Amino acid sequence: MSSAIVFSVTDATRQQLWIDSTQQALIGRGLRNGSARRAVVELLGHQNCCLTAIEIYDHLRASGRPVGIASVYRILELLTSERFVSRIDVGAGVSRYEPVWARGDHHHHLVCDRCGKVEPFDDRRLELALNRVEANSGYTVAGHEVVLHGACASCS
Question: What is the pLDDT of residue 9?
Answer without folding.
Answer: 52
